[in-house]
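Chapter review: from sequence to fold.
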Amino acid sequence: SSQHTKKLLGKFYTWLPMNVSGIVDLFVFGKLSFEEISKIKDIEINRIERIFNGVRKSFRKNLL
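The token string follows.
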């Protein structure tokens, strides 16, 4: 169900390290691009992309 999925996403999100969840927050809630996040966090854009892709893969793996 949708409620169950939301609960699982919430649990998974809380397991993320703070620096990673901050990047996810800026992308999802802040609607910022990887380039904008890279400038804010002072991290190379390639690293932002790798982090986000890793989170995306983990979400899929843990939710399916």
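Two observations follow directly from the output. Helices lie at 2-15, 18-28, 34-41, 45-63. The longest helix spans residues 45-63.
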